[in-house]
């Protein structure tokens, strides 16, 4: 499908966005009296993060024609993200996730079977829209939610490669969607097609079935992609043409919510690439945005603006009043 009538955003992504209900009661969901309402999704989180950092981004996917779907679409649009290629379905509902923190143990319960997002197909792709971007970002979540989701990811990557658009891939391994054994051949195949591969170290240990950090890095160094490996000991690993660089984390003053840290990192990293930074410089920016996200609560609400990032880099004091 091609319906492009205006320039594409710099970064285009697509995937599953779900309603999010969070139980505030520490006794857990079963006994919680109230639930906070929001939404989340790795790809829409990233698109919002990129937009807040001063770049154009586009997100699309399928949402149900229901109150949750309408809320999600309006909120993403309200963050300056182009949602012109998103689809509203009258046939399938918007997926839902419910988060609880019972006795200090966080858990997420998903209600996504037969959701609108899982019904995405390659026919939902706008070829010109993807081909006009600078970077296409995809994740392993879309590949995991359905066979048609995987086919759509593969088709989008093909469009991007044909058009010379860089492909960014975050495996986002979700063991509630599939086992490591099921995910391994699929995610490693997709990684081989990426220009920028953004895994976590723990994910690669599962996908390579290897516990030794150095052996994991050695295997990654053989890939053609620039590999940015999150989750090292106080640092992020950058592998470019087999050369390893270690980029230190930014210290977080107080950690309130680690959810969304990876998406915040990816948003900062990709924004850095659009700004013309080297992979190492872009990783430093990603480390900073990731550290800022975990100091507030929410999947995407805490994603920083470029002004906030600059203030942090320049150590600008906050004036309360």
UniProtKB/TrEMBL annotation:
GO terms for molecular function: kinase activity. InterPro entries: Carb_kinase_PfkB-like, Carboh/pur_kinase_PfkB_CS, PfkB_dom, Ribokinase-like. It comes from the Bacteria. Residues 10-305 form the Carbohydrate kinase PfkB domain. The keyword Electron transport does not apply. The keyword Transferase applies. Pfam families: PfkB (PF00294). Signal peptide: none annotated. Keywords: Kinase, Transferase. Belongs to the carbohydrate kinase PfkB family. This is Sugar kinase. It comes from Paenibacillus taichungensis.
């Amino acid at each position: 499908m091609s319906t492009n009538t205006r320039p594409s955003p710099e970064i285009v992504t697509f995937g599953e966005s779900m309603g999010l209900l969070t139980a505030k009661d520490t006794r857990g969901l079963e006994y919680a009296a109230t639930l906070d309402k929001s939404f989340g999704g790795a790809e829409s989180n990233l698109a919002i993060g990129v937009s807040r950092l001063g770049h154009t981004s586009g997100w699309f996917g399928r949402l149900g024609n229901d109150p949750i779907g309408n809320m999600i679409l309006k909120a993403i649009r309200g963050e300056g993200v182009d949602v012109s290629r998103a689809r509203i379905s009258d046939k399938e509902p918007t997926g839902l996730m419910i988060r609880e923190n019972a006795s200090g143990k966080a858990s997420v319960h998903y209600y996504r079977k037969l959701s609108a997002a899982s019904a995405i197909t390659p026919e939902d792709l706008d070829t010109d829209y993807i081909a006009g971007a600078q970077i296409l970002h995809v994740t392993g979540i879309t590949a995991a939610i359905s066979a048609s989701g995987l086919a759509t990811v593969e088709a989008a990557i093909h469009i991007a490669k044909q058009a010379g658009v860089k492909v960014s891939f975050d495996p986002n391994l979700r063991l509630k969607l599939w086992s490591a054994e099921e995910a391994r051949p699929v995610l490693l195949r997709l990684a081989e097609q990426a220009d920028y591969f953004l895994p976590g170290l723990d994910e690669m240990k599962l996908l390579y079935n290897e516990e030794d950090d150095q052996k994991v890095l050695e295997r990654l160094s053989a890939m053609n992609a620039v590999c940015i490996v999150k989750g090292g000991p106080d640092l992020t690993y950058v592998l470019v043409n087999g050369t390893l660089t270690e980029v230190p984390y930014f210290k977080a003053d107080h950690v309130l919510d680690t959810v969304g840290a990876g998406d915040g990192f990816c948003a900062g990293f990709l924004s850095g690439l659009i700004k013309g930074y080297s992979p190492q410089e872009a990783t430093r920016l990603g480390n900073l945005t990731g550290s800022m996200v975990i100091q507030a609560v929410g999947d995407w609400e805490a994603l920083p603006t470029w002004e906030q990032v600059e203030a942090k880099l320049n150590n600008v004091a906050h004036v309360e009043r």
